[in-house]
Amino acid sequence: MASYCLPLGEGACWMLTTTRRLVVRDNQATASEYVAEYIIQRINAFAPTATRPFVLGLPTGSSPQQVYAILVAAFREKRISFKHVITFNMDEYVGLPSAHPQSYHTFMYNHLFSHIDIDPSNVHILDGNAPDLESECAAYEAAIRKAGGIELFLGGIGPDGHVAFNEPGSSLNSRTRVKTLAYDTILANSRFFGDDLGKVPRMALTVGVATVLAAKEVVIIITGAHKALALQKCIEGPVNHMWTLSSLQMHQHALIVVDEDATLELQVKTVKYFKSIEGVAKECGYDQMVPSEIARQNAERAAEEAEMKALLESKGNGTKANGANGGLMVNGTPQRAVTPDIIPDRMSSRISDPPIPEGMMKENGELKMSNMHSRMPVPAY
Amino acid sequence: MDPRIPEAASVTSSKLIKFTNCRLLRGDSLVKADLWISPETGRVLHGQDVFYSQKLGPSKVIDLGGKILAPGFVETQVNGGFGFDFSNECDNLSDYAKGVNKIRKGLVQFGVTSFLPTITSQKTTLYKKVLPFLKPSSSIRSASQGAEILGAHCEGPFINPCRNGIHPKSVLVKPEDGFASLAECYGADNLQGGSNSTVRLVTIAPELPGAIDAIADLDARGIIASIGHSTTTYEHAISALSAGASTITHLFNAMEPLHHRNPGIFGLLGVPSSNKPFFGLIADGIHLHATCINLAWHAHREGCILVTDAMFAAGLPDGVYDWTNGDRIEKKGQVLHLVDSDGKIAGSASTMIECINNFRNWTGASIAESLTAASRTPARMLGIDGVKGVLEPGADADLVVLDDSEDAEGWKSLKIEQVWKFGEMVFKAD
């Protein structure tokens, strides 16, 4: 490991090299600011161009609304441009006209797209009025692939832990598809439709859990006491399809930004642990950003992977967690090491075969057939 | 494309203007949103639809730095200005046309993008001569002509001699034959009806013989009948309302004052809200006490229309000027009096934006409500809601950009920064 984190000891270093982060801020405003500034920093560090655009996944909802307001303000201050940003939205209702005040098209237009310099042809939102919804979903996945995959997926969660419209019980392996809304969600959303349950669309198109997890980085904003239980289930609970966001535990580069209220159900030690990670990271002189250099320099990554492969081959089978690339100094700023993809081996391969008792083996190397009772000790009576 | 979006709100060319970073007048409030317009069609676009369905971005983005963007003002009572009066009988009709053009171009600087040129009571020969110059100008959607004429407002001569104001009594007549009397006076050719009618609005005193029949006939033709210059009782005014009158010409002025046993025309603001008429208010600070404006506003907000009643002397230096029929008018500051008349007020010399500012400060109405009283409400009265007075997709791109400020004494004022007509900028403050 690199010299700059040696004083912390080997264990601390390992923690820092993981990029599953929980950032706690005092309130919704500061949490939103953190997320917005993080996105700005990520896009600017990526330095997108027409040929190498930044692909951003986007949610709707009350939590992201403030993030968008800050992004718009930053755009007006000329701190960020969306000229070479491609966006993919998470979801849209089925059958709601796109100009309906409650459609996610309208939400995105009002809160973000109309105020920034994004090219309309770079904006992707699922069409809930498409004649063939299934092929609309398939085309959406294809469009994401064509754009080179999502670099950063921003998301929020529902009080029941759902991410996008992946309601509790959704497959964690799901891709973009038509989804029937849970009764809870219809009930909760009826406030936007004049409290008339009959007016709330009953179906939606949504990216799947796996679509979100396939992004290079996932950033989730969770604010408010009413989401505290969901946060607890997703962070401290097991990976569980009843709390779909818990699947984020499987993601390499996940960042969850919360306000104090949202931590109400977490254990004190969990909150303290994540706060200490942030503190230590700051002491070490780097923020918690995924170095975009890494996301960008695919060549370097490929080289690393080759190196890793060679290493694994030389050691025979075995799970190796990290390469030797920790503590790089790029342009004078310390960069964290990449967490390489884990290449799983079979657990059985780590267990050596038990010795075979004498006399059990035939000359040709096969086991002798015998009655099972012959292996039992003779009773003492 | 969304089937609910009017076709006029779509666009074929990529020449689009987007106003951003502004506060739009939408409904009862100012909202932070963008506005897309097409200088080609001269209409407001459905920005969201252009963005998503047509995948078009704006060719020009105008950052208004947080200023207010509102629909252009719709004025229903303009007698004249800049030295010209619509009631002038010019020796040469081409001089009349020049005068009309001068006012159209002049009015836009006050934020007025469409208006009803108003003729006070005149001899029948004058109506027939000049009304053709005041027919709706919308067939030529040209920004260079200035404010758009929506048709004429004929304020008289079917009014009560006891409440004539400064209208000469000698020319006043009774509509004894109902609509036929009106046709004889204004010329049947000028009463086509509907939105292309040359005469768009008639101020009439309902107590005159034949007036109720005339009101019913006007209403049937889609010409607006307005109660005014009248001594009518509350009961009779109700009959006028039932016959089809839908608005009141400069409420309080030239009518009987409110009496607790005889509420008169003002009493119409107390009828059930579905039947309440619109009403004009001259908020110039001279015609009406501020509290009367406040009273009327609170009685019926949805019907309140701000008018200037501006005269030819608006915009001229102080002095005595010749007016029609041998009368003379004296201008002192913003006050206009008829000479030798015991101080009768002779219209106003104020501008629409001044009236809006007065109104806002006196009533405590919000910015949105104050602007609505000068835009959407008169448009609704004229039956052109959705085309004028709103920033909805498909509406004409007649716009004002306003700056909002407050002085040390707490007087709030809106200042006109820019005026747009049919999607083109026609005025910009220095």
From TrEMBL, chain A:
Keywords, ordered alphabetically: Carbohydrate metabolism, Hydrolase
Gene Ontology biological process terms, A to Z: carbohydrate metabolic process; glucosamine catabolic process; N-acetylglucosamine catabolic process; N-acetylneuraminate catabolic process
A Pfam match: Glucosamine_iso
PROSITE patterns registered for this protein in UniProt: GLC_GALNAC_ISOMERASE
Name assigned to this protein: Glucosamine-6-phosphate isomerase
GO CC, any one term: cytosol
Free-text function comment from the UniProt entry: Catalyzes the reversible conversion of alpha-D-glucosamine 6-phosphate (GlcN-6P) into beta-D-fructose 6-phosphate (Fru-6P) and ammonium ion, a regulatory reaction step in de novo uridine diphosphate-N-acetyl-alpha-D-glucosamine (UDP-GlcNAc) biosynthesis via hexosamine pathway.
EC number: 3.5.99.6
Annotated region described as Disordered, given as residue ranges: 316-340
Organism per entry: Microthyrium microscopicum
Catalysed conversion reaction: alpha-D-glucosamine 6-phosphate + H2O = beta-D-fructose 6-phosphate + NH4(+)
UniProtKB/TrEMBL annotation, chain B:
Species this protein is from: Microthyrium microscopicum
GO MF terms held by the record: metal ion binding; N-acetylglucosamine-6-phosphate deacetylase activity
Pfam families linked to this entry: Amidohydro_1
Cofactor comment: Binds 1 divalent metal cation per subunit.
Active site: D309 (proton donor/acceptor)
Keyword entries, A-Z: Carbohydrate metabolism, Hydrolase, Metal-binding
InterPro entries: Amidohydro-rel, GlcNAc_6-P_deAcase, Metal-dep_hydrolase_composite, Metal_Hydrolase
Binding site for Zn(2+): E155, H229, H250
Catalytic activity line of the entry: N-acetyl-D-glucosamine 6-phosphate + H2O = D-glucosamine 6-phosphate + acetate
Phylogenetic classification of the source organism: Eukaryota, Fungi, Dikarya, Ascomycota, Pezizomycotina
EC identifiers of the protein: 3.5.1.25
Name of this protein: N-acetylglucosamine-6-phosphate deacetylase
Record-level GO BP terms: N-acetylglucosamine catabolic process
Cofactor field: a divalent metal cation
Family the UniProt entry places it in: Belongs to the metallo-dependent hydrolases superfamily. NagA family.
Domain Amidohydrolase-related, first and last residues per copy: 68-425
Enzyme type, top EC level: hydrolase
Binding site for substrate: I166, N253, A254, R261, H287, I345, A346, G347
Gene3D superfamilies, per the entry: Metal-dependent hydrolases
